[in-house]
Amino acid sequence: MALITRRRALTALGAAAAATLAPPAASAWADSTEHRPRPLWRAHAHNDYEHPRPLLDALDHRFGSVEADIFLVGDQLLVGHTVDDLDPTRTLESLYLDPLARIVKANRGSVYRGRHHPLQLLVDIKTEGSSTYLELDRHLRRYRHLFTTYVHGKTVPGPVIAVISGDRAARIPLEAQRVRRAFYDGRLADLGTAAPASLIPLISDNWTLNFTWLGEGAFPDAERQKLRSIVQQAHARGQKVRFWATPDLAGPARDALWTELLAADVDHFNTDDLAGLEAFLDAHR
Question: Are residues 191 and 180 in the same domain?
Answer without folding.
Answer: no
